[in-house]
Amino acid sequence: MESNEEKISIVKQSVRGGILNICAAVVSKISGLLFYILILRFITPAEGGVYFLSMAFACIIAVIMVLGVGDSLARFIPYYEGTKKQDKIKSLVFTAFVSFLIFSILILFLAHLVSDVITTNYNKELGHVLTITLFISIALSLNSILICTLLGLKKFGECALYSAALPISKIVFVVGLFLLSTKNLTSVLNATFWSVAIVDIIMLISIFIKLAKFPGKFTLLEFKDILETASYGIATAFNQFSSFIMGYTDTLVLGYYISSAIIGAYNSVMSIARTAMHTISSQIFFVLTSMLSHLYGTKSEIFGPLASNAARWSAYITIPFVVLTLFFAKEFMEIFFPIYVNYYWLFYIIVPGIAIGILSYPARSALSAVGKTDLLFKSSFIGVIFNLVLNLILIPIYGVCGAAIATAISYTISEIIALFYAGKFAKFELPRMILKTTIPTITMLIALLLSYGYLFNFSARGMLFESIGVALASSVSLFIYFILLIKLGGLNKTDYTLIEKIIQIIKNMANQKRKLAV
Fold it and tell me: Which of 93, 198, 200, 211 is nearest to 141 (CA)?
């Protein structure tokens, strides 16, 4: 059993990490959306579609290169600390980087062999930019490993800093290249690569400076430890690969059947939906796997309750953003991607599927912490099969609408299975909070409907006024939702106890600073 000081430290790290990652996510997601808005002002709709297709390939190849190494680091670094085996951490990180290097070389070689096949039989436009796409995949895979290493080391502040710096770096590079060279797809892809590569280099130096203070040497892990971490990592890799395939299957299949301009429209809608839904909700639990792994390693009694409460908090935050995204679907497209405004109706299909995925994050974190990555893989693999089959059936018939329907259905099936496994093997209980969120949600929707007439008249004065109107209406309706949620008992005694502990921790830290100042 951990001491009271260790429990307070865990709570403090969780709170601090959650707040920092929320702030970083806001900067990161908004900057990432601004990047898409910027490039689609300078390149053609067709080039925008090729860019999204290129990034889909880069992300999937990056997952293959990593092969679960990052997830092993995020899980086993805090696990080794929790079990007092800190001398293995250096070897774990060194082994991870060696495996990443080997798999990167292998994947690059295989990708080179099939480059002509992609150009001839799949998408000629993608084939023309395949080389830079592969280099982007290398940078992204290394970035994933470095971020997971920081998470494992509980360096949440730096993790948040680098996560926020990456999209800002992309904007700086793309603006620089647009000013110095032609405004085309090649400039955008080059900016993407160099922005990720430079952030990776800075992170790499920072991490190895920190690891130098740990006991042990930079050598390979013992064979039994390699098998343990590899079995966890490979299963996680299949799960992550399945998740990426499920997220990008629509884009990949669209790349074969549909024109590049429509691919750009579909991914523009998807980028807004993911930004609106993920910016706060998913980042609150960005550190959850690391914290749960530590609690599981110390056999803490708060392991199960933490994951279950996190699911309830996730629902509270996700529901109002679903309402806002669906209510202002057309306005969002008019503000951000006016060239694709006619495809705003895709929000009504895509957003519910994304919301279900967010609600299951805590359950997936709990399964990952207890080492049940094989069950995560099963849930994702079933989703992939449904997604692939549905996309191949629906896209040729219904086009981009079929892609949205296939994605929403497959996400729903996969997450329901993950929730079932978490309840059975990870002490996870799905919270009952439907009645407590119904009245706040309905009231929020009524407030939006009553204000829409005034908002429409306000928006007729131009895009700036439309943006201000949407922001004001969203802020007021969110305020109403959360006030009603609290008044109607959305937070229970456990929540208030945690808040009291957080306030007490802040007061203790302030008192310590005053004593040091004196």
Answer: 200
